[in-house]
UniProtKB/TrEMBL annotation, chains A, B:
This is FAD/NAD(P)-binding domain-containing protein. The lineage of its organism: Eukaryota, Viridiplantae, Streptophyta, Embryophyta, Tracheophyta. It is found in: Mitochondrion inner membrane; Peroxisome. Residues 56-68 have a biased composition (Low complexity). PANTHER family: NADH DEHYDROGENASE, NADH DEHYDROGENASE-RELATED. Residues 80-363 form the FAD/NAD(P)-binding domain. It comes from Gossypium aridum (American cotton).
Length: 367, 367
């Protein structure tokens, strides 16, 4: 009764979850076990109260006056490992930590790990978004259940190596009415694995008009825009040129991400667009712009193979350097204008402001 | 070669698609069939051109000067059925239309149908979003392939019954750089099935702070906010009261949608939150606010069953009328303030401005 054997699973911010079919209107249609209760409705309604908002059980003001956070561990406590970031490094480390020996605290603006090599495939539906994201609580379950282990959806702003503390601020994207909440966490061991950020080389308009391909929400945005443009380009009377612009997909950066995404896109065009968007199939094109050679860090043979394969798939390879990005076109250093409907920016990564701010020894490249 | 037997499926704006695992980096790692080509890279890159942007093939200016759109069908053409909307009525009708007898044109701001009775289940992960949405092209395939049949992602603004024309405007949400494109469609038969819209009864702040539950993106927003609040409430040092506010889920409106959603939410709390968010499980509560009786259009027995079931599940039923909605609390007509972290508004629907604007006979209630 009330437990109909259906498991509910919910995982993360991006709709990652398991699929369990449920019965139709399961809270309403259960007339096979009717209730005899004749409780008048009004009584039930009036009995309800909002008593849980009473402040009677709050800690005294003095307790709240101390700076919020997790204070230093006591001598008999397990040592606390604080991990900043939830990427490859942070997650691999947390997976290997024994929660019997350590309390694990993860601070990251993202509650899941992204399997980045397959992210490009999710943009065109080859893979589902949830297939490339793994909730941290599934990588290290103790963070959601052990008394001293936590996951905090927050950014770290300062590392105070003197006092063995990290200063953090909650992420509040989307709930703009809420000020970020600041707190401190004392650490016994600190792991800085907060990752890099996409490089724009200071080119104007990149952040505003291009989409990166580093997070699941980037892939979702690319997919949304691609489909929107496919549908918009089909409206009657749209000038030919505008149709071509809407369906011109431009990828800047010929590294693994840009090449992989261009390939996925051309596969998508040759298969799905030709089958499902037959009205506009001859208008869609992919251009990959790279300043030097594509896949420059790879072996020659592989590079030639990729070039041949991309060209054969209809991807236009253009050698050029982007100077400026405007809402509907970008300008190369040779002055040529490239109109686009979708612009994906994948020119590599550099150190984040947080990592730059750390007064610690770094690897070459500032990371 | 280039066709590795993997089907790509992509369906709609909300990430609806089939899952086909793909091989890792499939466009790159295929060294078992290396290419012998020694084409220099530069040649390939320089050969590329943006020639598809030449305007040589455009129709002459005179052709573009005529008002864009689909003109009247000719005597020997199939009659054109124009369907406004992609809800239950419009989709059921299109499904039954024979594309051999009619050209079908659907105009809707949504490229899929939503199976609304199960929408509440997607908010907490019981169901996947794609399980409650069906692409229109799958309901009536001819709209994406037949020469005279189309789906237009657009809103209809005016019905000109005199000239048998509908005036439309493309939807441009998310691509704000694009002005809406206006066009006209001549119809032989017109089906107005554009649906109703959520009622706010003119209460201030509803549109800004509450979430409706009528579209897939509403369900996504609810889920996102619920999970965000669960994570935010776990940060160290947050005052008790703020924690309770963040995790107070308030549903306004005790119709089928509100009752179903409250039930789903309490199931989610009793199962998933208790298991996966153990740190904050005692802070989360659901309140259902209704001005009259819940499920007032249903049978007494069913109503009593629902009340008993909801109460038992921990849902607080409150009889009250909302006067004002602020970012973090709402005010009832009796003056009491109800703090909330998530507010879902499901007080029924009324006619849309478009339907109001039509000078046609309507059913009682203005629809």
């Amino acid at each position: 009764n009330g437990n109909d054997g259906i498991s509910i699973a919910i995982d993360d911010l991006f709709g990652l979850h398991l699929l369990f079919p449920t019965c139709f209107h399961r809270n309403l249609i259960k007339l096979s076990t009717p209730t005899k209760s004749e409780t008048p409705i009004t009584k039930n309604l009036l009995q309800a109260s909002l008593s849980h908002f009473s402040t009677a059980n709050q800690p005294p003001a003095s307790a709240q006056a101390q700076p919020p956070g997790l204070g230093p561990t006591k001598p008999h406590d397990k040592p606390r490992v604080v991990v900043l970031g939830s990427g490859w490094a942070g997650c691999r480390l947390m997976k290997g930590l024994d929660p019997k020996l350590y309390d694990i605290v993860c601070v990251s603006p993202r509650n899941h790990m992204v399997f980045t090599p397959l992210l490009a495939s999710t943009c065109v539906g080859t893979l589902e978004f949830r297939s490339v994201a793994e909730p941290i609580a599934r990588i290290q379950p103790s963070i959601s259940s052990a008394p001293g282990s936590y996951f905090f959806l927050a950014n770290s702003t300062v590392v105070d190596t003197e006092n063995h503390e990290v200063h953090c601020e909650t992420v509040t994207d989307g709930t703009d009415t809420l000020d970020p909440w600041k707190f401190k966490i004392s650490y016994d061991k600190l792991v800085i694995a907060s990752g890099a950020q996409a490089s724009t080389f200071g080119i104007h308009g990149v952040k505003e008009h291009a989409i990166f391909l580093r997070e699941v929400h980037h892939a979702q945005e690319i997919r949304r825009k691609l489909l929107l443009n496919l549908m918009l380009s089909d409206v009657p009377g749209l000038p030919e040129e505008e149709k071509r612009r809407l369906l011109h997909c431009v990828v800047v950066g010929g590294g693994p991400t840009g090449v992989e995404f261009s390939g996925e896109l051309s596969d998508f065009i040759r298969r799905d667009v030709h089958e499902r968007y037959t009205h506009v199939k001859d208008y869609i094109h992919v251009t990959l712009i790279e300043a030097n050679e594509i896949l420059s860090s790879f072996d020659d043979r592989l590079r030639h193979y990729a070039i041949k394969h991309l060209t054969k798939s209809g991807v236009r390879l253009v050698r050029g350097i982007v100077k400026d990005v405007k809402p509907e076109n970008l300008v190369l250093t040779d002055g040529s204008k490239v109109p686009y409907g979708l612009l994906v920016w994948s020119t590599g990564v550099g150190p984040s402001p947080f990592v730059n701010s750390l007064g610690l020894p770094k690897s070459p490249g500032g990371r």
